[in-house]
Write a structure and sequence with these properties.
Blueprint: H1 4-18, E1 28-29, E2 35-38, E3 41-45, H2 58-71, H3 79-83, H4 86-99, E4 106-110, H5 113-124, E5 130-134, H6 139-148, E6 151-155, H7 160-168, H8 170-173, E7 179-184, H9 196-205, E8 208-213, H10 227-231, E9 238-243, E10 253-257, H11 259-268, H12 270-273, H13 280-294, H14 297-314, E11 328-334, H15 336-348, E12 351-352, E13 355-356, E14 366-371, H16 378-396
Parallel strand pairs: 3-12, 5-6, 5-7, 7-8, 8-9
Antiparallel strand pairs: 1-2, 2-3, 4-10, 9-10, 11-14, 13-14
Bound molecules: pyridoxal-5'-phosphate.
């Protein structure tokens, strides 16, 4: 290879491959669903975050098509130039009323959850502030904290007592102009729910804000309203972020908070200001999705039954199942090689469950991230458990 700059990159890639850390994209042909076609093979998949089975829902597809006919396909500009349309506006109002994190809350749409988290933390926090973050938070909360230049304190996972000590310490809180507690509401690779009541209590006592990333709770918990409704929490000090590409089945995200907070984001959040608005047809699709989420008790009840059935069967497997009551059901193999081997053994049986390895999860906690959807049937779940049993027998022999 002639160019040394390319050769240097190629060498780093080769090292990743050697370390077993190279990632590959699978090319899905056709829509998301319990069965996906990859490279011409139809697989029973437990891999997406389409928890309510809405990603290919006909009513949402129709709403997207109607939205395209009415508004075209492009938004044309950022929200603050000429890209903010009637469809975005209506969706924001509906989301704010549905999640209602405080009286008079307003919602603000973003193109992705990643951007929304960057926006919240960079617009509200800066150099003289302190952010207290759960150690297992999603990468984009960490990235937002780093970009904000605030002091970042990571506390032990889900440990309110450890956070209470740190937030009370001189180093962390005294002198900090603003304080933030930032947490995933449902942890993306573990499936457990953050102790939000304890965190809100600490936030109140230490004059802090509570930033709640409900990427995996919105649509699923609290009658679909998300993790705040699950616990019955409301406060002016909560900055709520929900994503719209997981249970909602489409794409994008929103922040719901006190109107002064959302207005601060409109005025100052660079990931809001300097990017093209999502197409209005997406907002129309999401309005249809929100109606299905609101009336989605049967889907959620079915999902709960699938979760219970899977947990019962998985208890007999050799790998520990994390204590999760959400559709994210991780089986921890420990080392990455075993996770990959089991995932491949499942693939041979026509079942797709992704192996999740460091650095996405901490060292020695590689896992199979089983993700259930209301679109699965009970017999799909039994087929998965049967395939896992066969993979375990193969691994042991
Ligand atoms: C906890 C959490 N927050 C935020 C995101 C980012 O959301 P988005 O995919 O909409 O960028 C994800 C996943 O992608 C997530 O798991």
């Amino acid at each position: 290879m002639d160019d040394p700059a390319i050769a240097e990159l190629a060498q780093a890639l080769a090292q990743r491959e050697k370390d077993g850390l190279a990632r590959t994209r699978r090319r899905v042909e056709g829509p998301q669903g319990p069965r996906v076609t990859i490279d011409g093979r139809t697989l029973l998949a437990f891999a997406s975050n389409d928890y309510l089975g809405l990603a290919n829902d006909p009513a949402i597809v129709d709403a997207a098509c109607a939205g395209a006919r009415r508004y075209g396909v492009g938004s044309g500009a950022s929200h603050l130039i000429v890209g903010h349309g009637a469809a975005h506006d209506a969706l924001e109002r509906e989301l704010a009323a549905f999640v209602a994190p405080c009286d008079g809350a307003r919602a603000l749409l973003f193109s992705s959850g990643y951007l929304a988290n960057l926006a919240i933390l960079t617009a509200l926090a800066s150099r003289n502030d302190a952010i207290f973050a759960d150690r297992l938070n999603h990468a984009c909360l960490n990235d937002g904290a780093l970009l904000s230049r605030a002091r970042l304190h990571r506390y032990a996972h889900g440990d309110v007592a450890a956070l209470a000590l740190r937030i009370g310490e001189r180093s962390g809180s005294v002198g900090a102009r603003r304080r933030f507690i930032a947490t995933d509401a449902v942890f993306s690779m573990d499936g457990d729910i953050a102790p939000l009541p304890g965190l809100l209590d600490l936030a109140r006592r230490h004059d802090a804000w509570l930033v709640v990333d409900d990427a995996h709770g919105f649509g699923v918990l609290g009658g679909g309203r998300g993790s705040l409704a699950h616990f019955g929490l409301r406060s002016d000090r909560i900055v709520y972020m929900g994503t719209l590409g997981k249970a909602a089945g489409v794409a994008g995200a929103f922040v719901a908070a006190h109107p002064t907070v959302t207005e601060t984001l409109v005025q100052t959040a660079r990931p809001y200001i300097y990017t093209t608005a999502a197409p209005p047809l997406m907002a129309e699709a999401l309005r249809a999705s929100l109606a299905l989420i609101a009336g989605g008790e049967a889907r959620r009840a079915h999902l709960a039954a699938l979760i219970a059935a899977f947990r019962e069967r998985a208890a007999a497997l050799p790998w520990p199942l994390l204590p999760s009551q959400t559709p994210i059901q991780p089986l921890v193999t420990g080392d990455a090689a075993t996770a990959v081997a089991v995932s491949e053994a499942l693939l041979e049986q026509g079942v797709y469950v992704p192996a999740i390895r460091p650095p996405t999860v901490p060292a020695n906690t590689a896992r199979l991230r089983v993700s259930l959807s209301a679109a699965h049937t009970l017999s799909d779940v039994h087929a998965l458990a049967d395939a896992l049993e066969r993979a375990a027998a193969g691994a042991g022999s």
